[in-house]
Design a protein that fits this description.
The complex is a heterodimer. By secondary structure, chain A is mainly alpha-helical. Chain A is about 80% helix and about 0% strand. The longest helix of chain A is centred in the middle third of the chain and has 28 residues. The two termini of chain A are about 25 Å apart. By secondary structure, chain B is α/β, with parallel strands linked by helices. Among the domains of chain B are: about 140 residues, P-loop containing nucleotide triphosphate hydrolases (Rossmann fold, 3-Layer(aba) Sandwich), CATH 3.40.50; about 70 residues, Alpha-Beta Plaits (2-Layer Sandwich). In chain B, about 35% of the residues lie in helices and about 30% in strands. In chain B, the strands form 3 sheets. A 6-stranded mixed β-sheet of chain B has the order 6-7-8-3-9-10, sandwiched between helices. In chain B, strands 2-1-4-5 form a 4-stranded antiparallel β-sheet. In chain B, strand 4 and strand 5 form a beta hairpin. Chain B is elongated, with a radius of gyration of 25 Å. The chains are: A mainly alpha, B alpha/beta. Chains A and B meet through helix 1 and helix 5 of A and helix 2 and helix 3 of B.
Chain lengths: ~230, ~325
């Protein structure tokens, strides 16, 4: 797992991808921080974090699109799968590398909090709630992105389908409000990313929300290993 | 070292491998020979645990590849048909990665440098793999298979795409590797298999059609009742002398080799080896025998016989073209 984690981290920064992702994220979050906090004379970072929800949905596909699709295309998966390594270590190594890059991205928000603390004391509960929330959201979307990348040889297909799922998570609530069948709407409401996310910006960290996002991670990490198991047997 | 029993692999309804059985011992170089799409790569992918078989067992050093995959895989160095190279890394960084991936216990830098020397890639070791020529990429592929000094090497078409000089170098390298190892390599080039391998498995349409040493393969198919003799002297005298030997059925002159020296084609009874008698008869009449050769089939002819032979069911013959095409993509 270590070897794979190190290689993936290396490959983010050998290539321009890692830098591009960081630059894009810092630029976008910087804009929203300036607009919703600095120029609005607000000590709250919640406006910034709310905007980040959308940005995350676009940045994560860039992080995850090549995780497995590139291996499949270049046939390097043969080296990974014939090495004396467990499939779960391969998948986790890659997942943790993507998660680490994402962590570097969102760490910038802590700098914003420090900037605010130079003027006034920020609401640290809301900041940490937001931070944990965006981290969990990212963890779940990265797991989904990794799964999609394992399904295809094409980075583009992986990225586009991941963006589509990101957009779907954003608009899901408004779709749910249009559904008249109560039973169905209730189920979907419980699966809504925004629904589970909304307590975090308020500084409320609910166990059920944490479990929801961690379950999504778990399910898609597991499914990724199944993709490779299935490929062996079919 | 390797034991394969009743291996079957189906892709849907298409049978890619049908009852493959063989074993290989330490120090043996085994060649998989067969046309494109015959099942060579599929067999190798199953041996290395990349694919699973539909039925049958593979044992690597007595470890089942399905039940104890980690231990079994640690015994194998594998070069797939397309070398699994991370093109964005330098040769050295890549080899370090594979070293760590395989959890090799040897001293890291020393071991990597030894292998770099062995496959002669030291002058490119700091370059990015993407920029290397095909020959060098292939060598880096061989280098990654050698990492960890595995007792079993499985090389899928190791010399494909190389120039003749590189081919010879790689062949020498493989010959040097075989001492302490079991090597399996595949090829559709006969001379290559003939040059490196102790034993040949001819695979065709998912089945083993021959499994023997190179010599025995030729011997088994010899038309051993035909001899070519080059003899100096008068034609009539020689022909009558040869005809006097028991078992000779017919004698023809085929061509004049040198002035006064002719080549004779001698057909004899299949069961009899007339070579000794021929020598004695000719020398007693003072007719110098300058050359003698048994008309054995070349490996090319054997190969064609085996792969086009009547032992292949008709329907498979019909599907041949289709299987070939699909195999090219999959293998």
């Amino acid at each position: 797992m270590n070897a794979i984690f190190k290689r993936e981290m290396g490959s983010y920064f050998f290539s321009p991808i890692g830098y591009a992702v960081l630059a894009l994220f810092y630029l976008a979050s910087g804009y929203f921080f300036t607009a919703s906090s600095l120029t609005a004379d607000s000590s709250s970072l919640t406006g910034t974090f709310n905007a980040l929800f959308t940005i995350v949905a676009f940045v994560i596909p860039i992080i995850t699109m090549r995780l497995f699709s590139e291996d499949k295309k270049q046939k390097t998966d043969q080296a990974l799968l014939t090495a004396p390594v467990r499939l779960s270590s391969i998948v986790l190594g890659k997942y943790l590398a993507a998660l680490t890059l994402f962590f570097f991205c969102i760490s910038i928000t802590l700098v914003y909090a420090l900037i605010i603390s130079a003027f006034t004391s920020p609401d640290w509960a809301a900041v940490s709630g937001n931070f944990i929330g965006i981290f969990l959201l990212g963890s779940a979307l990265i797991a989904i992105g990794m799964f999609l990348s394992a399904l295809t040889e094409s980075q583009m297909v992986a990225a586009i389908s991941n963006v589509a799922i990101g957009i779907f998570t954003i608009v899901m609530d408004s779709i749910i409000s249009k559904i008249s069948v109560k039973f169905l709407a209730d189920i979907l409401k419980n699966l809504s990313f925004t629904g589970h996310y909304q307590s975090f910006p308020l500084g409320m960290i609910k166990l059920e929300d944490i479990i929801f996002f961690l379950s999504v991670c778990g399910v898609f990490i597991f499914l990724t290993t199944r993709v490779f198991e299935k490929k062996r047997w079919s | 070292m390797i034991e394969v029993k009743n291996l079957v692999k189906k892709y849907g309804s298409r049978i890619a491998l049908n009852q493959i059985n063989f074993s290989a011992t330490k120090g043996e170089v085994l060649g998989f020979l067969g046309p494109n799409g015959a099942g060579k790569s599929t067999t190798m992918n199953i041996l290395t645990g990349y694919l699973s078989s539909t039925s049958g067992t593979v044992k690597i050093a007595n470890l089942d590849i399905i039940e104890e995959p980690l231990q079994a895989k640690s015994k194998i160095g594998y070069l797939p048909e397309i070398p699994p190279l991370y093109l964005d890394m330098t040769v050295k960084a890549y080899l370090k990665f594979i070293f760590e991936l395989k959890k090799v216990k040897l001293p890291k830098n020393q071991h990597i440098n030894e292998i770099i020397e062995k496959v002669k890639i030291s002058q490119v070791s700091d370059r990015i793999i993407k920029n290397l020529s095909k020959g060098y990429k292939q060598r880096v592929g061989i280098a990654q298979a050698l990492l960890g000094d595995p007792p079993i090497l499985i090389l899928d078409e190791p010399t494909v795409g190389l120039d003749p000089k590189q081919i010879i170098e790689i062949r020498d390298l493989i010959s040097n590797l075989k001492e302490r190892r079991t090597v399996i390599l595949s090829s559709h080039i006969l001379t290559e298999v003939q040059a490196i391998c102790d034993r040949i498995l001819v695979i065709n349409k998912g089945r083993i059609v021959a499994d023997d040493t190179t010599e025995n393969l030729s011997a088994g198919m010899e038309r051993n009742h035909i001899l070519y003799a080059i003899v100096e002297g008068a034609k009539e005298k020689i022909i009558s002398a040869i005809k006097s030997i028991a078992g000779v059925l017919n004698v023809f002159v085929t061509k004049e080799k040198e002035p006064g020296v002719f080549e004779y084609k001698i057909e004899s009874d299949k069961e009899l080896d007339i070579r000794r008698q021929l020598f004695k008869t000719l020398s007693s009449q003072d007719l110098p025998l300058l050359g003698l050769k048994i008309d054995s089939l070349s490996l090319e002819e054997i190969f064609l016989k085996l792969t086009e032979g009547s032992d292949v069911p008709d329907e498979m013959q019909k599907n041949k073209k289709e299987i070939k095409n699909e195999g090219d993509e999959n293998s």
